[in-house]
Amino acid sequence: MSEFTERRRVHHPEMIPSAGDRRAGRAALRAPRPLKERPTEHLPSPSDWSFELIERYHDVIRDTARRHGLDTYPNQLEIITAEQMMDAYASVGMPVNYRHWSYGKEFIATEKNYKRGAMGLAYEIVINSNPCISYLMEENTMAMQALVIAHAAYGHNSFFKGNYLFRMWTDASSIIDYLVYAKKYVADCEEKHGIETVELFLDSCHALQNHGVDRYRRPSRKSLAQELAEARDREAYAQRQVNDLWRTLPRRASAADGPAETRRFPEEPEENLLYFIEKNAPLLEPWQREIVRIVRKVAQYFYPQRQTQVMNEGWATFWHHHLLNTMYDDGYLADGVMIEFLKSHTNVVYQPRVGERGYSGLNPYALGFAMYTDIKRICEAPTEEDRQWFPDIAGADWLPTLDQAMRNYKDESFVGQFLSPKLMRDFRLFAIHDDEKQSELEVSAIHDESGYRRVREALSRQYDLGSREPNIQVWNVNLRGDRSLTLRHFQHNDRPLDESALEVLKHVSRLWGFGVHLESTNGANDVTKRWSVEAAPLAA
Amino acid sequence: MIQQIIDRRLAGKNKSIGNRERFLRRHKEQIREAVKRAVDGRGIRDMQRGEDVHIPKKDLQEPVFHHAQGGVRDIVHPGNQEYVRGDRIKRPEGGQGGGSGQGQASDSGEGEDDFSFALSKEEFMQIFFEDLALPNLVKTQLAETPEWKTHRAGFSSDGTPNNLHVVRSMRGAIGRRIALGASSRRELRELEARLVELQRAATRGDVAAERELPALRLAIEALHGRIARIPFLDPIDLRFRSRVRVPVPTSKAVMFCLMDVSGSMDEARKELSKRFFILLYLFLTRHYEKIELVFIRHHTQAQEVDEENFFHARETGGTVVSSALVLMEEIIKARYSPSEWNIYGAQASDGDNWHHDSGRCRELLSEKILPLCRYFAYVQVAEEEQNLWEEYTQLTETHRHFAMRKAVQASQIYPVFRDLFKKEGVAA
Question: Is the pTM here over 0.90, yes or no?
Answer without folding.
Answer: no
